[in-house]
């Protein structure tokens, strides 16, 4: 960025007069500080401030050094961190190094220079018990801490000074990779506790792990001041065993000030006597503002009828059998005002828009009056997830799901099943076809060099979309930033901790007509930053993708999975045309059988100058090694390249080694995994992927309303 700021001393008056441009140094300090706030702190301190005297002063302004964010500064290395801490360590009050997996553990030693730290995030960093003890012993003002607890962690190695610091910590985020209480027993003043359980059931050697805590780890956590309890479990029985130990103390005495209780658990997580006592105690003694429970704890119980809520801002009933009748009566209080609710997750809640679930089939039409009550009561919703369910609208005029959702003018993120966006009349008709379009079956190949799709939005508009309910919905949600349209029966070919899925379920019948025209409607979202499209069966050419590339210039994250027919990638030409316009794209995930990652694809992808992470999952897919190497050489920002294809193990290993040898030195954060998708050792390879990449892009999942907003800074 330094080229934007010419040194004041060498700019003559004549050159200023002759110049027709604007000299940034003539701007006020307030404007310059606002501009500089978009520059990474490492660049400000180590580069920009050396350009002139004025910038030297501004770059050290408290507004720029108070909070230092390194969590996605992939170019930072140990030496830069050392110099940064030496120059402004005493001025830093909040330091976020989350996900800096590439930095050696010795880097943490330099954090001790930040004597005034109040907030510190080291999630994803390599920190031993001894290093943690040494560091925390010097941070007497610390009130918020995020760390990982890895195998080998020993709480007995924490010094008395370290424990004194922990006793003053009010907020703790702890990610566990081994059964342990971590530092929780030392944090006697906790008000917010976030726990992420990532413990595997088997060791690398294949031994079964136990959820029982090691000797010396049985200290009782202190929850008396707790206001927020959040636990997210990865699949596996060990994670369930360990979280029960954390909950045991809560069941004995529920904190009086508890106002958010959230447990996210995949699969079956059975209720026990202890958890039932905990929930009964919560129903008697607390009023909640946020709630999420495992489905087994809610299904078939009258819990929601007894829980009391204050001004709720987040609810998640993901994968519960909660009916719409219960949702309205027990949660929304019969349709009363619930303007405080900003985030609602009903993903996989198949009966949530029906009056009852006893005799209802999942594919039956929804009751629009329930959705209307929800929309009217929760008019300030900003995040709504209705994915992983069949939400079929009836033929009643004005009661389509899309028409009702268009009233939610404050929505920032939205997740819908594919079958919910189709017009009712179109869903019973045969999907549109044309002589010049690719049929939805195995047939003759389409020449990549020939465009077979409409080239502009006007052509698409003439193809019925302006009158569709989904077109109208997209037009009414102009400030939407995140959109997910996911097939109700879609499942990724790469689930976690299991072999790759070889077969996928067919799409819903109602979804058969959803294709190019609906994708084109998304291009109305001018401020769209993240887009996920999965299992859209009627994609014939992918023409709508081009419109999105042209119109959605803020797009940063794009995930496409199983579009069109499965025999070949019918949208490849349109995708390549789209990518040429995605100058802000940072993350790209593609999941499609028979995907050919060849020279033409990577040449188009090279236009994405901001791209940082690429993930391709393709059963029977192929790649061209020299094209991948050329792409990595031309796209200097790429630090993650994950490809799970149909190539042989030898081809994959050779390419992975070549990329690492060629680019690791200049890209310290580089993470490369190239591996056969159907190989039996895939799960072992996946466990070594940094959690940041695994959770944010490599594994497919719906992320809308996954957690309460602003859960952690």
UniProtKB/TrEMBL annotation:
Organism of this sequence: Tyrannus savana (Fork-tailed flycatcher)
Name of the encoding gene: Fbxl18
InterPro entries named in the record: F-box-like_dom_sf, F-box_dom, FBXL18_F-box, FBXL18_LRR, LRR_dom_sf
Coiled coil stretches, renumbered: none
Superkingdom assignment: Eukaryota
Name of this protein: FXL18 protein
GO biological process: SCF-dependent proteasomal ubiquitin-dependent protein catabolic process
Gene Ontology CC: SCF ubiquitin ligase complex
Record-annotated F-box domain positions: 21-68
Any single Pfam family the record assigns to this protein: LRR_FBXL18
